[in-house]
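# nightly structure sweep
# worker-07 picked up a monomer target from the shared queue
# config: single-sequence mode, recycle default, output format = structure tokens
# input follows
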Amino acid sequence: MKARSVNAVIKKARAAQKIWEEKPYRERAACLKKAARALASDIDGITETIHKDNGKLPVDALAAEVLPALLAIKYYIRRGKHFLAPRRIRGGSVLMFNKRSALVHKPWGVVGIISPWNYPFSIPFSEVVMALLAGNAVLLKTASITPRVGAALEKIFAAAELPAGLFSYVEMAGKDAGPAFIGTVEKPGVDKLFFTGSSAVGRELMALAAPRLLPLVLELGGADAAIIRADADLDRAAAGVVWAGFSNAGQSCGGVQRVIVHAPVYDKFLEKLCSLTEKLRIGTDLGPMATLRQKQAVCRQVEECIAGGAVISAASPGAYFMDEQTLNVPSLVLTNVKPSMPVMKDEVFGPVVAVVPAGDDDEAVAIANASPYGLSGSVWSKNRRASRALASRINAGAVMVNDHLMSHGLAETPWGGFGASGLGRSHGESGFIEMLKTQVIVDDTLPGVKRDLFWQPYSENVFSGVKAIAEFASGGIGKKIRALPALLGIFFRYWKAE
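# output follows
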């Protein structure tokens, strides 16, 4: 699809959105319930479609995409009305007793969603659901290498029987989507853009959006750290790192990449991790990488690490990493890594984890935070209080205790990172609010008022009265008492016509 065609789609969407916005929430929710039923009735078919489109194992497609989508749509339908409800703001000072403030939410209009190939179904699905429930129209572009998943999403939302033009699925090259969706100052595109992908492309989109000051939500890359404390359940920690590091062939922005282990248990943990890694089976436990291009990129990063002295301490059997005749790859555990290596400083979007020792929590946090990325992380320990305290020190948008990667599947939790991992949030109430413009309405409740205390015409009495307000607001008991006469003197100005 060309940019001119996208402009026509947006124009139609904008007209449909005006009608959709005025519908009561229960009517919007009723439409989305039809989409939920369409999803529930084709679990096997959608799982198979995801598997065929990007090579993801059926178990990964079902557990990490279809199931979270089923849970998410029920959650957002149930909670959306509450998220949309106006909220009264508590007063900040008795001196402004007559002002009543409330937050109200309004849809942006037309929301654009550009989604990735690694989780081609679950990521855009939740965003589309939230956008529609919030009263927006949606323009969706999925990754070019997963067109069948895009068609499956289109089919599900067609079942919702939405107004014509409210939801549109477009197929176009990735390089063309950003400019077409964003548009220009003279010919604006969508009203807000949600993008999931690489940090490099995220920066390009920010530059394109700047002239319009177009709001963006960017969910970008990650190089997540997992901290294994000396008191951790090492069996669970090793199994969790294997899953979070190697599922979906390591192609998860929120997967484990850097494993930081307290020195007293480093050898024991590494032995358990390597043992589990070497038992993984290609085709049963491990799927292929999505594209040869992605495999080649990861191969180059691994080769650079090895050239710098990194050691492959474990590899799953059944495939050779550098073999370009297949997309299957082994899962690798690297040790003897240095901070300058790609596995420590860059995002490695493949089944590779690096394991490094740390003397204590302070050193572990320092290593974890020595990264431009801040998407998610984890702490593994039997001491939950210590784990939560340590988690709060990790520079990441989502940190899990004794688990990793799964918080994206919890519809109620916000998702998003810091630094090179993007901006804004998706999922949960925070993600729902991203689909809305927030407006404050301030109401004056004092009856019969002619003017505020500090309106013209000015006089010495007005100045003294406003100063008394300031002194009353900032002073102690004595200062408040001294300010009262002037304060009371100006109070009656509310009802004076002149």
